[in-house]
Recover the amino acids of this structure.
C-alpha cells in the first residue's frame, strides 16, 4: 500500500490517469478532471471508473494530461517552498 501516494504521483507525472478513492487527502491531489475518484470502499464505482478509462481513450488521454499538469504544478519545488514557508511564518 502506498499511503503517501508516491507511486500515484509518479504515475500522474508520467501522464497516466489515476484510479483511486476518496480517502484521506487523495481528493486534494486527484481533483475532478485528473483521474477516477471512487468513494471509499466502493468497488463497483472503482470498477466502473476503470472501465470508462479503458472504453473511452479520449477521456483517458484528457485525464492523463490533466493529471500530469496537476501533479507537476502541485509538487514543483517553488510551490513546495512557498507552502512550507507560509506554514512556518503563519
Amino acid at each position: 500500500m502506498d499511503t503517501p501516494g508516491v507511486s500515484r504521483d509518479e504515475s500522474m507525472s508520467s501522464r497516466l490517469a489515476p484510479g483511486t478513492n476518496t480517502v484521506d487527502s487523495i481528493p486534494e491531489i486527484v481533483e475532478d478532471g485528473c483521474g477516477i475518484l471512487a468513494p471509499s470502499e466502493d468497488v463497483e464505482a472503482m470498477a466502473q471508473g476503470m472501465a470508462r478509462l479503458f472504453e473511452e481513450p479520449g477521456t483517458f488521454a484528457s485525464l492523463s494530461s490533466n493529471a500530469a499538469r496537476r501533479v507537476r504544478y502541485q509538487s514543483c519545488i517553488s510551490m513546495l517552498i512557498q507552502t512550507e514557508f507560509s506554514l512556518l511564518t503563519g
Notes: The chain has one domain: 6-89. The chain is about 65% helix and 5% strand. The radius of gyration is 14 Å. The domain at 6-89 is CATH 3.40.50.2000 (Rossmann fold).
